[in-house]
Design brief:
11% strand, Rossmann fold, binds 2'-deoxycytidine-5'-monophosphate
Amino acid sequence: MMKPIIAIDGPAAAGKGTLARRLATTLGLPYLDTGLLYRAVARRVLDAGGDPADAATAEGAARSLRPVDLDRSDLRGPQADAAAASVASIPGVRTALLAFQRDFATSEGAVLDGRDIGTVIFPDAQAKLFVTASLTERARRRWLELQAKGTDADLGTVEEDMRLRDAKDAARAAAPLRAADDAYLLDTSEMDAEAAFQAAMAFVCSRIRIVSMRDL
Ligand code: DC
């Protein structure tokens, strides 16, 4: 019996993480937030006083990445965001992280979210979703998250940072952000998390034979 692999790609703050985590719990599958891999590589480079744009340094950090690095509490924030986008544009870093992602899903299948899961990491995934929302709406969501954490950010600055990071993710030569040809496009601009989950679940169920379902 083939283990199901569910690929969830899309730009920042489109609702991928919330959706992917809930799909994984519901389907009884392991979940991997692949953005954390790039963030953890960036953090290792920064900790060593290195430059995240330097290919040799970033590749070295990617090759020596350990699972425990993903548990750090300092992987988010403006500095980590920018450094992660830099290391993610280096082809050698992406190659070094490929095996980690494939190994993760080998034994039980998995739900993975990222930018290139359906296009590069698992082109044969049983179900691929490309989750998106308008820039204005994604910036508003990120700003609300920051407010909830007690971080006083300017909405215009959050939107501009997001626009630049999206442009960098989409324009890079190595595995740019794009929807796989066979991905289901889910625009969550006008949806709450529940509506997005129901739409995603209906699609996923049409693609995989459900073998284990929790919390349904
Ligand atoms: O999803 P995120 O914001 O945590 O991702 C951090 C950075 O890593 C972001 O610049 C996009 C990049 N990334 C990537 O290139 N490929 C992935 N599969 C996941 C994230």
